[in-house]
Please model this.
Amino acid sequence: MRSNLKGWRVLLTGLGGGICYASYLIILHYTESVLLSVFLAIILVCIYSEVVARMVKTPVSVFVICVIIPLVPGRTMYYAMRAYISSDMALASSLIFETLMIAGTISIAIAVVASATSLVLRLQQRF
Amino acid sequence: MPEISLKMCSKLALKAGSIILESGGATNRVELMMYKVCKGFGFEEIESFVTPTGIFLSIGDGKNELSTSIRRVEQRRIDLGKITDLTRVVNTLYEDNCAKCPPEMTKYDYFRQELEKIDTQQPYPSFVTNLCGAATSGSFCLIFGGTGLEFALAMIVGFIVSASLKYISLLPVNNFLLNAIAASIIVILSKTMQLGFQSINLDTIIVGGIMILVPGLSITNAIRDTMSGDLVAGTARGVEALIITVGIVAGSGAMLKLWEIILG
Model:
């Protein structure tokens, strides 16, 4: 939103961000596992952005950048830092670990979708 | 048969590439766009190597002429609008072979004019980006469980931080210091607000402000670069994201502790 994207595409990225957080909350409610819900939500919105970006002829990364932002672990990072300041090392290290786990999960999900898409596109070209 | 000279073509391709790189595009996208530009002008031998801070490009005409150029990219901002526009222009050149170009201009003139137009394109006025920053910060405050009053305060914090980011980046500071200063401004503002409104929850406001600074672009680009086999660029971007993150944490942490020592 703050990235100088023009016109109605902003609405599409906003919708993607909404889908991202909504699906995260829904899956979290059913599975009660943070990492699994982050993984599935990111996969869902990455597929969303690959499809929509092709429909409106925009680079895919433009969409991916905007829609993953709601799940980037800024909050756990802040809590980790606060625990560190109040010298609660056990809490701080567990929060830092959680931050790293979430960030890694997001990366893996993006990578999975990106590789799968290029595979599908290549197969489409061949047949 | 190429219709313009090697030097002119490499100049155009470098210009297109550096616009994308300066606007925060992934390096494999830069390579792809430069390839399409050179191909669109009829050159066959194209080798390029792009890192997040520079472009190397070498074009040959298939006989014994070869032109190699290097471009250093100094500043990097986020401007997804420019990337979108440039992709559209390059695709008209590469795929439709400039079918929609005005007939009175040559392909070269048309393309150069479009590039100039994109390069000098004005971003949104800063007032609008600041308002968007305010909305981002306020919305994240709500997501993390803020109340109505905290939402309003987070919007004020978001507005001031986006405005000050612009002015701090005029100073010769690096990414680390820029984000550290911005994060400490967030903490100072919200701590000051807590003096006025005793009942507010400080965490939601600070987290809302921090979410503006979080390097989502660098992380995404790092992963996409690494996945496409561009290990140098991927590592560089990953380190950039790490440095920014450490900057945010250091800035806000130092300021929280200082406030505690001085006024606690």
